[in-house]
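The pair is quoted verbatim as follows:
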Amino acid sequence: MEKAYSFALYDNIDSLPDSWDKLAVANIFLTTGYLSVLEHSAPENMQCRFIGIYDGPKLVAAALSQFLNLNLLESFGERDRCVKTSVRNFVFKRFSSHVLFIGNNMLTGQNAFVFAPDADYVAILKTLKTAARKLSDDYEKQGKRVHLVTFKDFSESRSAQFTQAGFTDHLKFSTQPNMVLEIRKEWENFDDYVGSLLKKYRDQFKRARKKSEGLEKRKLDLDDIIQHEETINALYHHVARNAPFNTFFLSDHHFRRLKQHLGDNFLLYGYFDGGKLIGFSTLIKNGNVLDTYFLGYDESIQREKMLYLNMLYDMIAFGTNKKFSKIVFARTALEIKSSVGAQPEAMIGYMKHRNSLINSKLDRVFQYMEPKTEWQQRKPFK
């Protein structure tokens, strides 16, 4: 017999039930530590609310929703300037500027909800669908009509359960894959990883390391992050503005808040040239999985020092030396990530537009929202 769950919506961390973190411990991005960062330091155009799903009095799933107002963005990204990009930007501004995500639009992977082992997955999806309608109604009462509801980043193996849960009126879509490096059991340390590369890719590693000679890499504590905050923000914004597409920009105190709330589970590494901060990378420990987060760099020095590639190698060094099971490199820069060994994992999502006419043509509209990326997968291992 199919279960019927109830749900509750929460506006702030203090109102969450005591059992929330006991359930969310399986995914750091749904714990109150990380959610506190979103509550106090979310992007300016984002509003987060939290969803508890209950079987009677028992919390069986904890979920995140994000409402994005794209009208508040001064730019969607400045790298690509062409007719297709202009059409895409117009479509977003005119027809889909208010987007409700069930999930985390700042991350790649299934970070929408965490659930108890004995919970009914289909019943959770049905309840989240109902919760999304309630959230849309709430935002409309505030004068913010939700145009598009999106459930994002699920494994293809979950598609049958979405169908059972009644998502046939939603567009099933796939985006750029999540790039993931599985840490092999035989890699006792980073040297073992380097030794497993084909000669062409070992030469790439050696060339990158030689280019970065003279740079100092340093792990920054909270005081360091605060001291260098202005530069960190500038370096982040330089990279973000030159991305092909953005739906948000991080707030100025985001990295500081992460360090305050996540402590040793959040790592920020600064790269210095002659004492000047010219780049940074971030990592988040999520159980035995290592998630890469946001980074920033000075483009002129990045090219000269092969800084981005060196950051990837440094992340792999940390992951292998600290015995993580895998490293989640997320989307973007697919080819260079595959050149260091990351493999693509297909992700699916479901979206529905409130306008029935647009919804019936959503597959065509989506082609402008998510332009296809052509890339060549590399196979760097022996």
Observations:
- Confidence is low (pLDDT under 50) at residues 75-80.
